[in-house]
Design a protein that fits this description.
Elements lengths: L6 E2 L18 E9 L2 E6 L3 E6 L7 E4 L8 E8 L5 E7 L3 E6 L5 E6 L4 E6 L5 E6 L4 E5 L5 E5 L6 E6 L5 E6 L3 E6 L8 E4 L7 E4 L5 E5 L2 E8 L6 E16 L5 E6 L6 E6 L1 E2 L6 E2 L1
Antiparallel strand pairs: 1-2, 2-3, 3-4, 4-5, 6-7, 7-8, 8-9, 10-11, 11-12, 12-13, 14-15, 15-16, 16-17, 18-19, 19-20, 20-21, 21-22, 22-23, 24-25
Length: about 280
C-alpha cells in the first residue's frame, strides 16, 4: 500500500467473522491513525481500512458510507472503559461510527446535524469531542453519544482537536485560523485563543508528557507552544508546501511533519533541543 495523496491497491484482506469486510482497490487515503500496533486509514470515497502492523496484509477494509462526497474525514483509535480497543470514524454523511478493533463489527453509530470533520476521545476514554461544519463543538458521552456540553466561540467550521494528557484541556482547531483551549470543568467559554497565520488549524497534537502542543495550518506553518508557559511561548516552523499531518514521537524528542507536495513530498523530522542549565529545554 502507498499512503498520502497517491492511490493504493489492497491485495489481501483477512476475513473476520461477522464483519463487513470487502476487497477495495485504488483507495485514495484521506486520514490515518496508529495506536498500539493497529493502523486505521480513511478514504475519500467513505472507506475504512485497518491493518495490524505486525501482521501481513490488510485486516479489514470496507466502505462505511456510499453517499455523494462520502469522505471519511477522520479516524481515531481509543479504548472503551472496559478496556477493549475501538475505532471511531467521522464522515461527511453526518455520522460517527464505532467499530470493535477485534471483530471489526460496527457496534454503534451516532448522528449529528452537520458533516463531522473530526473526533477525539479524552484520555480517560469517557468523553468524545465532535467537530464539523458548525461553529459549535460538542462534547458527547463516548459510550452513548449523548451530547453533554456545547463549546461556543469559534466563528467558522472546525477541523481538528486534541486532548492534553491530563484530560482537563481540550484544544480545537477552526477555519477561523484559531485554536481554542477549553477547560472541561467549565466550558462556558474558552480559556485561551491561539492564532495561526493564514489558514485553518487542520491538525493539533500534544506531546505525551503534555509539555508541548503543536498545531498545523494547511500549508507552510506549524506552531509549537510551551504549555508550561500557559501557551505564551511559541516557536513557528515556516516551510514550503502542503502539510499532510504532524506527530510527536512517543518519547517527545521529535516532531514529524508530513509534506504532501507531489514533487517535494517528504517527511520532515525536527529534534528537541535541550538546554541543561536549570533543566530548561525547548524545541
Amino acid at each position: 500500500m502507498t499512503f498520502g495523496n497517491q492511490e493504493s491497491t489492497l491485495w489481501f484482506v483477512q476475513k473476520y467473522p461477522g464483519s463487513a469486510s470487502q476487497t477495495l482497490s485504488r483507495v485514495q487515503i484521506s486520514t490515518m491513525a496508529v495506536r498500539d500496533g493497529l493502523m486505521a486509514a480513511g478514504g475519500f470515497q467513505g472507506e475504512l481500512i485497518c491493518k495490524y502492523l505486525n501482521q501481513p496484509g490488510v485486516a479489514f477494509a470496507t466502505k462505511i458510507s456510499n453517499g455523494e462526497n462520502a469522505i471519511t474525514n477522520a479516524v481515531d483509535i481509543s479504548y472503551s472503559p472496559t478496556g477493549s480497543m475501538r475505532i471511531i470514524t467521522a464522515n461527511n454523511d453526518q455520522q460517527v461510527r464505532i467499530f470493535d478493533a477485534k471483530s471489526f463489527v460496527c457496534t454503534n453509530h451516532y448522528a449529528f446535524p452537520w458533516s463531522v470533520n473530526n473526533t477525539s476521545v479524552s484520555p480517560d476514554d469517557k468523553l468524545l469531542a465532535v467537530l464539523g461544519d458548525s461553529p459549535e463543538c460538542l462534547l458527547a458521552d463516548a459510550q452513548s453519544g449523548k451530547v453533554v456540553s456545547n463549546l461556543k466561540g469559534h466563528l467558522d467550521y472546525s477541523f481538528s482537536s486534541a486532548w492534553h494528557p491530563d484530560g482537563r484541556i481540550l484544544a480545537t482547531g477552526n477555519q477561523d485560523t484559531t485554536c481554542r483551549l477549553w477547560d472541561i470543568r467549565n466550558t462556558s467559554q474558552s480559556i485561551a485563543v491561539l492564532k495561526g497565520r493564514m489558514g485553518a488549524i487542520r491538525a493539533i497534537k500534544f506531546t505525551s508528557d503534555g509539555r508541548f502542543m503543536a498545531m498545523a495550518e494547511p500549508a507552510d506553518f506549524v506552531h509549537i507552544f510551551d504549555t508550561q508557559s500557559d501557551y505564551g511561548t511559541c516557536q513557528e516552523i515556516d516551510l514550503f508546501g502542503e502539510i499532510a499531518g504532524i506527530s510527536f514521537s512517543p518519547d517527545t524528542e521529535a516532531l514529524f511533519i508530513g509534506v504532501a507536495d507531489r514533487t517535494y513530498g517528504s517527511l520532515l523530522e525536527f529534534n528537541r533541543k535541550h538546554y541543561h542549565h536549570y533543566l530548561d529545554y525547548v524545541l
